[in-house]
């Protein structure tokens, strides 16, 4: 059967960590030779447009701006992306996300001016887009830039009220459907098990998002079948919402021809080249664009890196590292402050042999695809569950352990860094991650990879057979 013309609308949440994988999805759709005639329209806001335009350079994607509301209480003027919210401002996530609802009328007005939409993929945080899709008569698929494991584990914990009566923050409890996996209260968002949470604005927002997700026509995970088959199979058997595994989306660029060599290399790439030429292995250190890390913890990380004696490239926000640190480590370390870096290129660099990470899922996928073992330092959101997956299930990572007061001490960091970069454990992790890296590339192999076939099926279902 010949496909009709396909028009896909994408609407990512206004955060770099959410935009990047969905823009990679846009490239995947536009490179889909089987469909032959796909058009993609991406919605964003005026201040996010330059990033979207740059990310989609060389494609024929249409980009449409919808104004972000003015004068949102608590949100500074000119902030249209969570990355620009003030530091240590997790409390602003809820009002910022709620404010996106004010974009709905303009969003629907722009949709009506577009060619007929085959289906829409919108971020799970943008719950209100389901109502727009229903009004205009096309399917809405939820984009969840996460793995499947953290999703089903989280579902199990809350559906079974697994931790509601557990007083200790650190007592391990087995997950009923996956009894070999143990979780703790501290692995989840603080106060989520408090009975008062049902009146909490954050809890109400999550409830709206989950309700909207469950009423949609499918869900896209940024993962691939061979990475977590047990959890994907469980989701398919036990959830009504159909899952589509289309990852690893960070590998999409490797299959396209648009990339050209940079005319001028950034300073961090020149530094990595020098390390490679000297035969030095480098630890890449990054905790994401929105990490909330205390000054004391940052100092412990810095001192741990100093004591480890390994070479490192650290991408950090602000200037809260103790005085004299950079002078003491000298050429062995490079600090990149308040600068966006191409993390994928860093991880693919020949000198980079380890990654100290907060365990955001984009970072985990990029590290696995680059075949770089991980030192897991989860901080927030679903990151502790991601750490469980990469440490205990995939065995591509080691995890740092916090002291009794919750701080990860310099001695722990130094010891684990040295083991990752130079020890037997690091060698084992490297062998494992290399195997998964090869599987990741195979998943997106044109025409025959599992994720590519899943994309074929998705397009066929929503473009020829309706919802």
UniProtKB/TrEMBL annotation:
SUPFAM superfamilies registered for this protein in UniProt: UDP-Glycosyltransferase/glycogen phosphorylase (SSF53756)
Similarity comment text for this entry: Belongs to the UDP-glycosyltransferase family.
Statement: the UniProt record of this protein carries the keyword Nucleotidyltransferase: no
Superkingdom: Eukaryota
Top EC class, one word: transferase
Keywords assigned by UniProt, alphabetized: Glycosyltransferase, Transferase
Ranges of residues in domain Tudor: 243-308
InterPro entries per record: Tudor, UDP_glucos_trans, UDP_glycos_trans_CS
EC id: 2.4.1.-
Pfam families tied to this protein: UDPGT
Single GO molecular function: UDP-glucosyltransferase activity
Gene3D superfamilies, per the entry: Glycogen Phosphorylase B
Stated name of the protein: Glycosyltransferase
């Amino acid at each position: 059967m010949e496909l009709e013309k396909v028009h896909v609308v994408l609407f990512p949440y206004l955060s770099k960590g959410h935009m990047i994988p969905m823009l990679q999805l846009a490239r995947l759709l536009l490179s889909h030779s089987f469909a032959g005639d796909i058009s993609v329209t991406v919605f964003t806001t005026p201040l996010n447009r330059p990033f979207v335009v740059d990310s989609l350079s060389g494609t024929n994607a249409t980009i449409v701006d919808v104004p972000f509301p003015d004068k949102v209480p608590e949100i500074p003027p000119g902030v249209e992306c969570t990355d620009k919210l003030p530091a240590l401002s997790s409390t602003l996530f809820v009002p910022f996300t709620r404010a996106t609802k004010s974009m709905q009328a303009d969003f629907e007005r722009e949709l009506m001016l577009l060619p007929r939409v085959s289906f829409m993929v919108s971020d799970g945080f943008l719950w209100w887009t389901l109502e727009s899709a229903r009004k205009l008569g096309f399917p809405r698929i939820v984009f969840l830039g996460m793995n499947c494991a953290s999703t089903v584990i989280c579902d199990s914990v809350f559906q079974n009220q697994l931790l509601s009566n557990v007083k200790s923050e650190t007592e391990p409890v087995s997950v009923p459907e996956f009894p070999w996996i143990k979780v703790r209260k501290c692995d989840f968002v603080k106060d989520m098990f408090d009975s008062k949470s049902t009146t909490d604005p954050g809890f109400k927002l999550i409830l709206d998002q989950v309700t909207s997700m469950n009423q949609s026509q499918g869900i896209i995970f940024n993962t691939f079948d061979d990475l977590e088959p047990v959890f994907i199979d469980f989701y398919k058997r036990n959830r009504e919402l159909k899952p589509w595994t289309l990852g690893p989306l960070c590998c999409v660029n490797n299959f396209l021809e648009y990339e050209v060599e940079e005319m001028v290399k950034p300073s961090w790439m020149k530094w990595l080249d020098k390390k490679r030429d000297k035969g030095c292995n480098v630890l890449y250190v990054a905790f994401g664009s929105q990490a909330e890390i205390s000054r004391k913890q940052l100092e412990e990380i810095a001192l741990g890196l100093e004591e480890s004696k390994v070479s490192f490239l650290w991408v950090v926000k602000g200037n809260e590292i103790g005085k004299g640190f950079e002078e003491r480590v000298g050429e062995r370390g490079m600090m990149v402050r308040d600068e966006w870096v191409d993390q994928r290129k860093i991880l693919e660099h020949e000198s980079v042999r380890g990654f100290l990470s907060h365990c955001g899922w984009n970072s985990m996928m990029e590290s696995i695809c680059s075949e770089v073992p991980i030192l897991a330092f989860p901080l927030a959101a679903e990151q502790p569950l991601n750490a469980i997956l990469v440490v205990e299930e995939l065995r591509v990572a080691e995890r740092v352990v916090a002291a009794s007061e919750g701080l990860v001490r310099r001695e722990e960091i130094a010891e684990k860094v040295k083991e990752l970069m130079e020890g037997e454990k690091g060698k084992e992790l490297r062998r494992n991650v290399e195997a998964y890296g090869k599987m990741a590339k195979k998943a997106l192999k044109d025409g025959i990879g599992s994720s590519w076939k899943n994309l074929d099926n998705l397009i066929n279902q929503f473009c020829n057979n309706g919802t």
